[in-house]
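>> Question from a student workshop board

For tomorrow's exercise we were told to take the sequence and the ligand below, predict the bound structure, and bring the output to class. My setup keeps failing. Could a helper post the expected result so I can at least see what it should look like? The ligand is 4'-phosphopantetheine.
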Amino acid sequence: MKTAICPGSFDPVTNGHLDIIKRTSKIVDKVIVAVLYNPAKNPLFTVEERIGLLKKVTKDIPNIEVTCFSGLLVDYVNEKKIDIIVKGLRAVSDFEYEFQMALMNKKLNSKIETMFMMTKGEYSYLSSSIIKETFRLNGCINGLVPEEVIEAMKQKFECCK
Ligand code: PNS
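>> Workshop helper replied:
Here is what the output should look like for this input. Compare the format with yours to find the bug.
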């Protein structure tokens, strides 16, 4: 039984993330989607809200668990006996940082493998930050994030205005 982890901030989950999660779920037995709990960051959505959204938008994927983690990813991976870290690669610009992280994770625990999956072309420019900025400035984000995320963002920005 092979288990993969898709870690991230998911603030909020985009269709790019969802594509990677879905494709990963087809090639391993179980996928753990893990939201990083990072008190140093100032996210739009709380960890609980991000988990709630991820659970809603992945409800049709049978072999999935949505959770959160804090501290080093490799420690979590080791503790949960996860086989592979799966990361999405959007463009060359992602490569340097992802390569750095994969090598650092390997240095911290040589048994852990990271695998990269190329993002679908149509989502290759997407990021949670670009979604938040576009939405905040009244730009259209239809088709780039799940409907549930658009609704949650409407509520979030309404209460912040
Ligand atoms: O969605 P993001 O913000 O690109 O996700 C980055 C994430 C959560 C995968 C990465 O920051 C992470 O693994 N953080 C946990 C702390 C850690 O293990 N750092 C790596 C040492 S290189």
